[in-house]
Amino acid sequence: MNRALTTLAACAAVHRNTPVGASLETALIAAVIADQHPIPEMEAVRLAEKDRWDDRVRVASRCARLLIDEAHLELQAVTA
C-alpha cells in the first residue's frame, strides 16, 4: 500500500468515531478505488459517497477498514 493511503488511514484512526473520522474513511475508500481502478478521481469519490453496494466500493471499504484498524493499533502502541 502506498504512503498516501496509509497516512490517510492514520488520520482516520486518530479521528475514529467522530464525524471527521467518517469523512476521512470515505476519502480513504475513494482513494483506494482510484488507486485500484482506471476511473477518474471524481467518479471514485461519487462511488464512495453514494454507491456502497458497488463491488469496487465493497472491496475498497474492506481494504480501508483494515488500513484504519492497523493504524489504530499503531496509534495505541505509540500512546501506551
Q: How would you characterize this protein structure?
A:
The termini are far apart. The protein contains four helices and no strands. The model has no long low-confidence stretch (mean pLDDT 94). It has helices spanning 3-14, 19-36, 41-50, 55-79. The chain has 80 residues and is an all-alpha fold.
List keywords for this structure.
elongated; 0% strand; mainly alpha; 80 residues; single chain; 81% helix; 4 helices
Write the layout of secondary structure elements.
Layout: H1 3-14, H2 19-36, H3 41-50, H4 55-79
Helix pairs in contact: 1-2, 1-4, 2-3, 2-4
Mean pLDDT: 94
Tertiary shape: elongated
Radius of gyration equals 12 Å
Proportion in helices:
over 70%
Please tally the helical runs, counting DSSP H or I stretches of 4 or more residues. Answer: 4
Structural class: mainly alpha
Give the helices and strands as they follow along the chain.
Answer: HHHH
- Segments where pLDDT lies below 50 for 5+ residues? none
Largest sheet entry:
none
**Number of strand segments:** 0
